Request: fold
Amino acid sequence: MKKNEEVINSEIKAEVAVIYDYESMASFRIQKQSFLMDYKNEVYRLYRPFYENNVNIDVIPSYVDFSEYKVLLIPTMIVFKTEVQERIREFVKNGGKVVFSFRTAINDYYNNLTLGQFNPSYYTELIGGFVEEIESLQEGQCVEVKGINEFEGTIGSGTVFRDMLKTTTAESLFMYNDEFYKEFSAVTLNKYEKGEAYYIGTGIDNNVMDMIAKKILKEANIEVVESESGIEVVKRVVDEEEYYFVMNHTDKSKEFNGITLSAYESKIIKSWYYICKV
Reply:
């Protein structure tokens, strides 16, 4: 342990961050808008596919600097703050990728509705569209979405809520696939100056979310480390040398890159060769 102290204490650098917004969490506690709405679940919905690709992710409040990340995940941030919106806009302008999910930018800082604005308020140019219709989904109710363009042939589902999007400059990735709402987009992508803004209009299923995350990671040139379910891999860099902390979170023996990890065992790997147990 002592000889690896420098590695263990080294900085964990993340290229992806998720905003955990306390004002929005409080707003949904006051008015859930759907019996299925759980703010923490919606944070996890965006967080999970990046975590499962063993991508380092920071969980941050909205007031900290996020300009150095490549990807910014913003789940159900119903309360908007003008100064945060401006920083998000600058982040995308400068080449960042942002992912919004449903019920974004509805209420001001005092939790009041914004009149005279299409939703998401003051973001319509950034996302390249607007929300024309909404529907609160309840227990046992889900909606079907179908992929178009590069996602042609993919069928998925949405739950909790749905924002029905009309595009202006955005590209539609998934459309709603029920009789009365086929003209509305469920997932969109808008190129905005040097960056991109995704809008996910419903509580999308894991399979579709995985596809979207893989597209983002590939295009952002972020390293992905494949591993079995239950194996977490965290990269560290010390003096330009790469180390990988490999952790088995399960009660069963697992394999990673030809190395066996016993139940709950952790190892440090340098250049993919085993060096020690933690």
The helical segments are 5-8, 22-30, 39-51, 82-93, 124-127, 206-219. Residues 273-278 have pLDDT under 50 and may be disordered. The longest helix spans residues 206-219. The CA atoms of residues 41 and 188 lie 21 Å apart.
